[in-house]
Write a structure and sequence with these properties.
Layout lengths: L12 H23 L2 H23 L6 H21 L6 E2 L2 E2 L2 H24 L22 H18 L3
Antiparallel strand pairs: 1-2
Helix pairs in contact: 1-2, 2-4, 3-4, 4-5
Length: 168
């Protein structure tokens, strides 16, 4: 039986574990930020924001199809946005090409872009969006052959993320 494009299901074990691990890592990083010098905080905050967006696409694309999971991540993205507004005026987090916390601001628009790309992929190729993986012609979670449209969607995602990351 084929699922609707947008559907709600209960969270699966992977979803519970990945969200719990993400929240745990977030709390650990928050604790580290209070103890680390400002230069280290730049790196931590930047890597946290950048890593979140990349890991969601790279490993969360299957889970994000479920709107229950998607809305949990929207909630996390709203928390990121709140944290961004708390950090954006801290001069010690300013980097050469922008602010270290900019990735936190980008979580929400990147989640929305993901759903748009997913919808376009389903309408154009009648298949779910999957993430390209290094050195393989199949994606890591669905085992489906990655095609041109999947690759183009990934490039669009990366380009938009880069543009958002350097525009304040």
């Amino acid at each position: 039986m084929r699922k609707n494009i947008f559907y709600f299901e209960s969270l699966k074990r992977f979803d519970y574990i990945s969200i719990a691990v993400y929240i745990l890592i977030s709390l650990i990083l928050l604790a580290c930020c209070y103890k680390a010098p400002l230069e280290a905080n730049q790196t931590l905050v930047f890597a946290y924001g950048f890593g979140t967006v990349m890991l969601l696409y790279g490993f969360g694309y299957r889970s994000l199809r479920n709107l229950t999971v998607y809305f949990v991540w929207i909630g996390i993205a709203l928390i990121h946005l709140f944290i961004y507004f708390q950090l954006k005026d801290i001069s010690g987090l300013k980097m050469k090409n922008g602010h270290a916390a900019i990735g936190l601001r980008n979580t929400l628009p990147m989640l929305i872009l993901f759903q748009i790309l997913r919808f376009v992929n389903i309408k154009i190729q009648n298949q779910e969006l999957v993430a390209p993986s290094w050195g393989s012609s199949t994606d890591i979670l669905d085992g489906r052959r990655v095609n041109f449209m999947d690759f183009i969607s990934f490039v669009i995602y990366i380009v938009v993320f880069i543009i958002l990351s350097f525009k304040i």
